[in-house]
Amino acid sequence: MAKTSIVESEAAHFGGLARDWWDPDGASAMLHKLNPVRLGYIRDMVDQHFGLDECSFSPLQGKRALDVGCGAGLLAEPLARMGAEVTAVDAAPELIAAAKAHAEGQGIAIDYRAIGVEELGGAFDLVTAMEVIEHVADPQAFVTSLAARLAPGGLLILSTPNRTAWSKLLTITLAEGFGKIPKGTHDYAKFIDPDTMRGLLTKTGLEVIDFEGIAMSPTRGLHLSEDVRLNYLVAAKWP
């Protein structure tokens, strides 16, 4: 296993975006558009997995959540609002500083740490890693480290671009080419298709329980779909 999942050049790239991370019209605007879609999926899977009340405003009350590659907290804060005790880690100290400042301004308590997941201990009921695995040094080692933090009975959710010509066109050629995503954010060679993702997860002993696509359309924008060509979410658990 690699000693760390962190690629320093990747950390530096994202750290440079920290200043306007929370600006919905800034460099991370696409993440702001993506976040509600991810949250909808997470909420649905959490309700199903833990047998929760889908109408509850705090479904994660009493549960520990870990958000890996948390950026400046776009996902960590909603998880905390859903009642979870949240720990969130990121490789970029600049992002962790921005995350702490924003959470403090919102009156939200989150344990933010500028470390790799390999340096973290403890067990968590929910582990998330959104748009992270395509930026790490060793995907298998990274997934193994995520599994090591997942408590018995817990739920792991990841998202990532699919390795398709469609994903390359929309994510790199168009989105990065026209400045919708900062140039250099993605490397197509590191994109992971669903079959490979399933293999990474099952090799750690986890059971894959769901795949869901994230598609883009002119009328609906980004939305959950059976179409996984662009991007997808995957949920896994211990057998």
Written account of the structure:
The protein has seven helices and eight strands; from the N terminus they run ααβαβαββαβααβββ. It is an alpha/beta fold. The protein has one domain: Rossmann fold. It has an eight-stranded mixed beta sheet. It is globular, with a radius of gyration of 16 Å. The protein starts with 7 loop residues before the first helix and ends with a strand.
Summarize the structure.
The protein contains seven helices and eight strands, in the order H-H-E-H-E-H-E-E-H-E-H-H-E-E-E. With 239 residues, the protein is of the alpha/beta class. Strand 4 (124-130), helix 5 and strand 5 (150-161) form a beta-alpha-beta unit.
The amount of helix comes to 25-40%
How far apart the termini lie comes to 23 Å
| Nearest-integer average pLDDT | 95
Number of domains: 1
Number of helices: 7
Following the backbone from N to C, one meets helices and strands in this order, namely HHEHEHEEHEHHEEE
Task: Characterize the overall form.
Answer: globular
At the fourth level of CATH, the homologous superfamily is Vaccinia Virus protein VP39
Q: Spatial order of the strands in the main sheet?
A: 3-2-1-4-5-8-6-7
Low-confidence stretches: none
Radius of gyration: 16 Å
Number of E-state strands: 8
Per CATH, what is the topology? Rossmann fold
The second-level CATH architecture is 3-Layer(aba) Sandwich
- Indicate the structural class: alpha/beta
